[in-house]
Amino acid sequence: MNKYLGVFIDDDQKNFESIKRLFLLKNIQLLPYENLPQDINEIYQKVIDQNVDFVIIDYDLGKQAVKYTGIDVLKNIREQDAEIYIIYLTNKDFVEDHIGEFDQTVKKKELAKEIDNVVRRLTRALSRDLSLKNEREIENNYKLQKEYLDERIEALKEYLRK
Length: 162
Description:
Layout (H helix, E strand, L loop, with lengths): L3 E6 L3 H12 L3 E6 L7 H9 L4 E5 L11 H11 L4 E6 L13 E4 L3 H51 L1
Parallel strand pairs: 1-2, 1-3, 3-4, 4-5
């Protein structure tokens, strides 16, 4: 069974197959994002529909004749979801204005040799997110139980006053 599920947003399916194999070796499944839409806003909805844990976005999406880049997709996703983990792939040198928009940047040609580091950071972040979600769920359950018990205590007090 795969530990995590991600989606790979790229314009070249040959890239997807090789990267998918790298992640499968680490027990992580990747889904392709095929046929990029002309409307960038449709991408996030599909990401949500696939219920993925993380997203890998390639900078260059020009082979599918869309009017946006991977950084545009990244920013669009971030506007709607600040918590989903994003790995940004590029062949370009790091560009300073991208700081803070993604969780990891990796040069495509270095991904194979960096896969252990990428996966380590990814799994650490996703585990931490899961722990925080569990903690919030426990807190919410505690509050609900407390409210219920407070109501029951008040009802008992009212009954004893009669």
